[in-house]
Amino acid sequence: MSPDLRTRLGSVHLDNPVLTAAGCAGTGRELAAFFDISRIGAVITKSVMLEPRAGRPAPRVAETPSGMLSATGLQGPGVEVFLQRDLPWLLSRGGRAGVSLAGSGVAEYAELARRVSEAPGVSFLEVNLSCANPSDQGRHFTDDPREAARVVHAVRSHARSDVPVFAKLAADVPDPVALAEACAEARADGLSLVNTVRGMAIDPRSLRPAVAGGMGGVSGPAIRPIAVGCVYEVHAALPELPIIGSGGVRTGADVLEFLAAGASAAAVGTVNFHDPSACVRILREVEEALTEHGVRRVADVIGAAHRPMGAPLGGADAPGGA
Amino acid sequence: MSPDLRTRLGSVHLDNPVLTAAGCAGTGRELAAFFDISRIGAVITKSVMLEPRAGRPAPRVAETPSGMLSATGLQGPGVEVFLQRDLPWLLSRGGRAGVSLAGSGVAEYAELARRVSEAPGVSFLEVNLSCANPSDQGRHFTDDPREAARVVHAVRSHARSDVPVFAKLAADVPDPVALAEACAEARADGLSLVNTVRGMAIDPRSLRPAVAGGMGGVSGPAIRPIAVGCVYEVHAALPELPIIGSGGVRTGADVLEFLAAGASAAAVGTVNFHDPSACVRILREVEEALTEHGVRRVADVIGAAHRPMGAPLGGADAPGGA
Amino acid sequence: MSDFGPVQIRCPVLSVRRVDAYYAITVVAPQIAERFRAGQFVAVAVGGEASAMLLRRPFAVHDVKPDYGGTVEFLFSVRGAGTSWLSERRSRDLLDVVGPLGRPFPLPRDPVNCALVGGGSGGAPLFPLAHALRRRGCRVDFLLGGASADRVFSAITARRVAETATFTTDDGSFGVRGPVTAPLGRVIEEARSDVVYACGPMPMLREAGAVAARHGIPLQVAVEETMACGTGLCMSCVVPVVGEDGVTRMVRACVDGPVFRGERVRFDDVGTIPFDALGAPGWKARPEPGDGMADRAAG
Amino acid sequence: MSDFGPVQIRCPVLSVRRVDAYYAITVVAPQIAERFRAGQFVAVAVGGEASAMLLRRPFAVHDVKPDYGGTVEFLFSVRGAGTSWLSERRSRDLLDVVGPLGRPFPLPRDPVNCALVGGGSGGAPLFPLAHALRRRGCRVDFLLGGASADRVFSAITARRVAETATFTTDDGSFGVRGPVTAPLGRVIEEARSDVVYACGPMPMLREAGAVAARHGIPLQVAVEETMACGTGLCMSCVVPVVGEDGVTRMVRACVDGPVFRGERVRFDDVGTIPFDALGAPGWKARPEPGDGMADRAAG
Ligand SMILES: Cc1cc2nc3c(=O)[nH]c(=O)nc-3n(C[C@H](O)[C@H](O)[C@H](O)COP(=O)(O)OP(=O)(O)OC[C@H]3O[C@@H](n4cnc5c(N)ncnc54)[C@H](O)[C@@H]3O)c2cc1C
Ligand SMILES: Cc1cc2nc3c(=O)[nH]c(=O)nc-3n(C[C@H](O)[C@H](O)[C@H](O)COP(=O)(O)OP(=O)(O)OC[C@H]3O[C@@H](n4cnc5c(N)ncnc54)[C@H](O)[C@@H]3O)c2cc1C
Ligand SMILES: Cc1cc2nc3c(=O)[nH]c(=O)nc-3n(C[C@H](O)[C@H](O)[C@H](O)COP(=O)(O)O)c2cc1C
Ligand SMILES: Cc1cc2nc3c(=O)[nH]c(=O)nc-3n(C[C@H](O)[C@H](O)[C@H](O)COP(=O)(O)O)c2cc1C
Ligand code: FES
Ligand code: FES
After folding, report:
1. Active site includes B230?
2. Which of A76, B167, D68, D119 has the smallest count of CB within 10 Å of its CB?
3. Which domain holds residue A223?
């Protein structure tokens, strides 16, 4: 009997815990050349902004050991094109849509939340808080738990009440647990952990920063232990809050690592660039690994790493189960 | 003509900028089987504590993509054995000694600073601030710039005045630049950036944390972009303060990356485990790369990434030059 | 999924050969060979299963053959760790290849005269183009440049398929000394070229564009931008391109290109976000209805 | 640097063979072969130059031969990505190997009777030991266990070199069903063994220790702890071992071991820091002068 892969993100039920991470799969159109995108748990779309945005100048990426550094600057066509063209396309293919929102101020986030959540077929919202906060000298909203909470609160208040809101945080913040708690108090329905980690690469030929603008975000398997640690600590502090884990997911074993740490689903980001069929391969690997572990329901793995050694996988205490 | 590899760490002149990172080369004894340790810039010793210390239970390490997770818990024989046995051995082999200090409180750091700096032959002290602070609920001294500054101040006051003091910081702190500034105000002669990054790995077989105690420190090439970014930002804010860079140095090109970001020397850590001859190979690669770049003095590379594109490497403005 | 889109396959290496300063790898990849059109490229995973190199390496397809159900050949010079690893492959090794990627060169309906200009490894995609043009009865004139004699791509094949073949090197070790665009004007005049196809570094493409403009003929360029995915996902490969509506957009070289109409690429602004590009800082949405939808036509 | 310490070399692979559930790799490594003594191991870099796998894999040396100036053989089963990569090596590939590492088995001066007990791949280091013991005129009795028949190590060689060879499997597919330590008491009695040498997982070593203690004979164990470096740098491989001064210290299995006197290893406390270990939490420095220096004798 093949294992039950269903999982839950708050009130949303998903067929399986393998998602795509924001900004690493567009709205699914490119990946659809490689597999049927209705097969994965959900597509988290690239962060949508109110207006079209050209992003950052090239070079925008550099390879780093087991990872990459990127600074794309949230290039995108704006919410109107997204709602008229991209979202309907995804839904027409049977895809589940988690829509990531990026604003340049609380009011923008609120308007995005209203417009996007009212579009039919949106499964959940993800609030990308790693955006420059114009009222805080351009620091990220994640740098100050109060600022992050203001955004989450605004999104939650303006979004349709039956659309869950996930706050997406970075790992390299003063205190991830405090930030998560602030978001929870602002009525986030869940968390998405983690965004890219700040870093830089220097071109060996020119000895100048490899990415225009200098600093960028590190992603890929290199950051997986950082991401898993963050999920573990936040889940320990807030065991009731569902978590979407991301950061270097490459294999089915990595998905189970995130679930064991406390995530209810895991999103594949950078690895899509390396392996456009990754999501379906990972899905198969998750199934195989569960069968090998003798676990019947993927939900039983959630939080397993917090249970004492030897405790059986599974049981009624597993939060977020289907 | 082979390039001039000399560099300076404050008042200390080193033959070259390739060091070993604390805790990754003991006091040089094991590496001496593979190369003549007097050839490298300096050996930074494993952090010395006042008393013998058994460290953390096994398993202490796990492999992660392009890196590793470790939690060894500063096992060591204590300062007495260090001063009687290990330090003299290193000096007898012609090695330069940078001694890393770890205390469980300000008073301990101060006593270590006094005892170690008075031993003949110590080139510089490195203050490992990633230690649990008993007067701050066990959080690290690096978590609070004031606490870090208290330690640095105590070490600086108790150490012999002609022995420079380097404050070693982590990258995953609330604000690395603010922390660096606090250390500078407390009269640190330089900084050492960065220590390991907090993280976790979960064993795919047991689905439990792979390292006893759960969280550990991520090191190796995986964290290099994080480390380089930290050096770059701190050097931009404090261009006069010499920096020892570390985090995933594997090749000569990586050393130049750290120097270009603003470090005056680079320390090889985890890569020694992979390649016990790494330091001398890296030294050769640095020499070859400088020749290829047509740079005569390694000191000319320091801070190169901060200069405008096209600006020549070198010139009188390079800080920390020999 | 689709019969036209790219596929991802693990293909056996048939051969690895040295050709002057380049290596030529031929893989057995029927699904890529049958879909391929000149100008498209493949993206190859490097370093093996446990590789620290996460990004695929893009290479223009140099040749497809019907052998073994369909083979694909690409040529490359060793630049860094990825191409170094590739150069050590042996026959029967498996390579993870995605392709064919990108938009192909548009082919003229009529048998016109075509000048093909390639710099360094940028010569690669021009060979399948030359064959396709010849099949349509077009005249082909080749211009191939390189740093030195051993970096001029497949000179012998070029001589065979083309009416004329002009070679240039930076060091004068083969053909004319100087940039490959220098003799372009003369070739256009002598061959009465109707269109120029060019592939190579941006400065070369810009220069080719200037020459073509001076002769009042169209130019098709294939750009080689840094690409992290090759499949349109990562937004790393953007270039400023003017759309049919006159609006500049940052478009992806991998899926919206690599082939563009030369006069549409804002060569002088590559590496920047032009102030008037859609969504540039300070850019303001124009109030016309339906405006946002226009970016469908980008490229 | 020294003639006794380990060396790091890139050695050509001579052969890769399948032996039951194991692979046997032989590399040409004269400097390692000439230094090697039974019980030592090598640490092998895996995944190639651009590998994401940073830690060397330790393997006991199974055999050294004088061919080609000196060859070294190790056997392994595929466990994860590292051993999987190793199993795909072919002859003439280069492997980056560090060795010989660790302290060898101490050999008796007199021709005594020795029982050699190996679990799974833990049988490997016992073969060069058996040869060395035979050269000294010792009697060797082998006990080799494994999960199944194909995991019992080199049964044929064992029969050849030893006076008696006893085999056990967990599934009973070969020899006696049950743990390899079960028949140990009987063998010791029948062969009048003077000493036991054991290598394998910790629980097996502990059990072998209990049997040897019951028979009042000494035991030498070779432990297989997780090792991140193998060279003594990283402190990852520590086990609690009682020193000659009666003090327990956390010592490194890679350089202070892997061979220890069985009764010195606190098997029950492996994976913990015993409360009375030197430097354990709450441990207090004793005021005797020179105390700190005693840890020189650790192991
Ligand atoms: C559409 C396209 C077609 C190409 N066709 C060919 C070809 O037919 N023959 C050929 O020799 N080369 C070709 N290139 C360039 C080739 O992709 C690079 O030489 C190769 O990626 C270098 O990899 P590396 O690991 O050896 O170098 P490294 O410098 O170590 O690579 C580091 C990173 O930079 C990227 N990179 C480095 N150089 C280039 C470059 N010139 N262009 C794009 N990305 C680069 C790599 O992909 C990698 O992500 C093409 C590039 C593109 C975009
Ligand atoms: C001194 C010593 C001698 C050994 N001799 C042999 C031998 O002769 N034949 C043999 O088949 N195996 C031997 N082993 C075990 C062998 O080192 C592991 O099977 C191997 O490292 C697994 O690597 P992997 O990448 O395939 O597995 P993975 O599980 O993917 O490895 C992940 C990490 O865990 C470590 N690891 C995994 N399993 C073990 C293990 N059992 N022991 C130590 N580290 C482990 C790896 O080294 C690596 O760092 C020995 C171990 C030690 C310490
Ligand atoms: C090129 C790129 C673009 C990204 N864009 C977004 C984005 O638009 N919104 C967002 O919340 N996260 C974005 N991310 C972060 C990813 O969603 C993900 O959280 C992060 O990369 C870690 O996962 P990974 O290691 O699997 O990539 C982006 C990451 C990359 C590499
Ligand atoms: C096993 C291990 C032990 C370490 N011990 C110390 C230590 O005692 N003191 C210290 O300041 N840093 C210690 N570090 C941190 C390193 O000195 C270095 O700053 C860090 O690992 C990043 O460099 P790397 O990636 O080259 O290893 C240790 C790191 C490792 C992996
Ligand atoms: S290379 Fe990723 S979008 Fe073009
Ligand atoms: S394995 Fe590193 S000290 Fe033993």
Report:
1. no
2. D68
3. 7-306
